[in-house]
Amino acid sequence: MKCYLDSNVYISSARKEIDPKLNILFHYSDLFFAKCRTNKVTLVLSRLFFDEIGKTISLNKQDILQFMNEAKINYEIVEEIKQFKKEALRIQNKTGLHLADSFHAAIACSSQCQHIITWNKKDFEKTETILPCLTPEEFISIF
């Protein structure tokens, strides 16, 4: 199985985040990563993923990959995103999704992912007809 990983899942783990409703996001993010390891899930990571983490918590790609390698999590990296512009624009026009999120969805679809994993499920609700999205907590309960 392949899943596209939104940066907020990694960020919640690294920051030990708890949301305003006192949901322990980091706990579920950590359980999600453990589930990926045991179930041999491949996470698709894009340049957008690395850029967003760098801007938000100042970790670089090497730091993130070190975590993935030490946790024994399978991953694929999509470096070049220009090739997804046409598909991102098509998704944006079809769904009304923001362009940046349309790029995430385009990369996920093109990478043959089964799900987008995100804590901002509301941002990706419009992609449900194209590609379902799950929170880490939902992923854990299903798989």
Describe this structure in words.
The chain has 143 residues and is of the alpha/beta class. The protein has one domain: Rossmann fold (3-Layer(aba) Sandwich), CATH 3.40.50. The chain is built from 8 helices and 5 strands. A 5-stranded parallel β-sheet has the order 3-2-1-4-5. It is globular and about 35 Å long. The termini are close together. The relative contact order is 0.20. The model has no long low-confidence stretch (mean pLDDT 95).
Supply database-style keywords.
single chain, 143 residues, alpha/beta, 8 helices, globular
The main β sheet shows up as: 5 strands, parallel
- Tally of individual domains: 1
Mean pLDDT over the full residue set = 95
Q: Which stretches are poorly predicted, pLDDT < 50 over at least 5 residues?
A: none
Instruction: Give the oligomeric state of the chains in this entry, treating copies of one chain as homo and distinct chains as hetero.
Output: single chain
CATH topology name, in short, is Rossmann fold
Structural class: alpha/beta
Helix run count: 8
CATH architectural designation = 3-Layer(aba) Sandwich
- Strands of the largest sheet, in order across it? 3-2-1-4-5
Which value, in Å, is the CA radius of gyration? 14 Å
What portion of residues is helical? Answer: 40-55%
Please report which band the strand proportion falls in: under 5%, 5-15%, 15-25%, 25-35%, 35-45% or over 45%: 5-15%
CATH superfamily: 5'-nuclease
* Dominant shape: globular
